[in-house]
Amino acid sequence: MGRLEAVFFDQDGVIIETEKEGHRAAFNTAFKEFGLGIEWDEEYYYELLKIGGGKERIRYFLEKTGFSSSEYNMNSDSFIKQIHNRKTELFIELIKTGQLPLRPGIRRLMEEVNRQGIFLGICTTSNEMAARAVEKYMLQGISVDLLLAGDVVLKKKPDPGIYLMALEKSGIAADNVFVIEDSGIGVSSGKSAGLSVLATINEYTENDNLDPADIIVDTLGDPEGVRSHLIKGRLMDEYKGFIDVTLLESYLLQT
Questions:
Q1: What band does 177 get if pLDDT is binned at 50, 70 and 90?
Q2: Which of 12, 208, 214, 244 is catalytic?
Q3: H/E element, 35
Q4: E strands along 72-168, which residues?
Q5: Does 151 map to a domain?
Q6: Which end of the chain is more exposed for a tag (fewer CB within 10 A), N or C?
Q7: For this structure, is 12 an active site residue?
Q8: Do 192 and 67 fall within a single domain?
Q9: Is 92 in the same domain as 107?
Q10: Residue 214 designated active-site
């Protein structure tokens, strides 16, 4: 039996809808600027999301397709980093200009976590500069106690490393933590770290295997706005169409 002392949030697909019109668009613009003639369509990008990390997706694509260019050493770490750095710059511009909205319920839940003195962490495979931009421009007024991003761990999700690091840095026991994720690799990462996981699905992850998650909803929901639907979880009697701290605490007390 645990009690809620921390909530660790993934970023992409949980805090903001970033993948289709955010990361994918930024990747394609970067490819175009480098004159590579590469464009990842929505269906192919869905497959790439099974790979944790942007640089890792580029490398996977290059190695699997054998794509090459006479102008560049395509598989070199330095070239992949160049592309990814430019992609990150483009993505941050989307954040700064408000083109990627917060997902329903995320600000409400984070504010509630802050009010109750619960530790709030963000654990993402996204580049740290991008993650900091989301925190600065989209989460104004939210107190983030810990932000872990990008290459802070050697192995990215589905490896549990980032959540194990979050536990170590926060000093909070795994029984007292809830993770908010949106993808199969994210859920696997959280569960492998011994944490309770709530999965909130989106357009890109609705067909992922999220079954290992303790709770699955389509969105976090808001009492006065978009209501969410419970897909999995022992919460039927308490569920009112949105996820809040009381509900997460109740779940931990029952485990």
A1: very high
A2: 12
A3: none
A4: 119-124, 146-149
A5: yes
A6: N
A7: yes
A8: no
A9: no
A10: no
